[in-house]
Fold this sequence. Notes:
Elements: E1 5-8, H1 12-22, E2 25-27, H2 33-38, E3 46-49, E4 59-62, E5 65-69, H3 74-79, H4 81-86, H5 88-95, H6 100-105, H7 108-114, H8 121-127, E6 131-134, E7 138-140, H9 141-144, E8 145-147, E9 150-151, E10 159-165, E11 169-176, E12 183-192, E13 195-201, E14 208-209, H10 211-219, H11 223-227, H12 244-261
Amino acid sequence: MYGFELHQAKSVADATALLASTGGKALAGGQSLVAAMKLRLARPGHIVDLAGIADLAGIRSEGSTLTIGAMTRHADVASSAAVKSVIPALAALAEGIGDRQVRNMGTIGGSLANNDPAADWSAAVVALDATIVTSKRSIGADAFFKGMYETALAADELITAVRFPVPQKAAYAKFRNPASRFALTGVFVAKSANGVRVAVTGAATSVFRSKPLEEALGRAFTAEAARAVKLPAQGLNNDLHGSAEYRAHLIAVMAARAVAAT
C-alpha cells in the first residue's frame, strides 16, 4: 500500500463535498477498491469512507417497488424477508456473490459504481429496468452502464439507492469462475407487463441486453425457446477462461436455466 488521507463522511452532502474538493475515491465495502490499491491499479490520494452514513443502508418494499440503499451489504439482501417476498431472484443473486466475507462487506452501490464486467448486480439492474438514485439525479438502467468500469456517475456523485420494479417473473443463472466466483457468463431474465428483458454479464466488456433472447422469450417464455437461440460470438470476451464462441453458447444455456427457475 501507500500513503493516502482517509476522510470519514457523516452525510451524503459531506461525502460529495469531500469528493469534489479532494478528487478522491469513495469507499463503500472496499472489496474492489482496496484490492485495486494493493495491486497499484488505483492510487487515490484521498479516500472518502461512506460507512458512517446510516441513511445509505436499508431495504424498503413499497407497493410495486423494492428500494435497496446503496450501502446495503450483499448478505443483508440475501437474508432479507422483504426481498425474498417480492423479488426472490435478488436474494438468490446476492447469496451467490463471492464468498462469505465478500457478501458481508460488499455493497450493492459499490458494485454498481465499480461496474466490473463480470459483476452480478449489473445484470439484475438492467434486466429489471431499475433506477439508480444518486446524490444528484435518477438514472435509468439502460443509461447507467457505459463500458468497462465506466458508468454515468460524475466524479463527485454518489449512488444513494436502487429502485427495482417488482416483476411478474425473474431469475438469475450464472456459470461462475470457480476461483473468483465472478460470472464467466451470467444471465438475468425478467418478465413484466412491459415485456421481457434479458441482461448478460461476464461475457463482454460490460453488461448488455440480449435482444434475440428478449424477442424469443417474448413469443414463448420457456427454457426451450431460450435454448434454441443461436447468438453471435462477435464482440464477446475471448480469453483463457473461454472463447467468444463458448460464451455465446453459455448465454443461451444460462438464459434457459434462468427461465426454468422462475
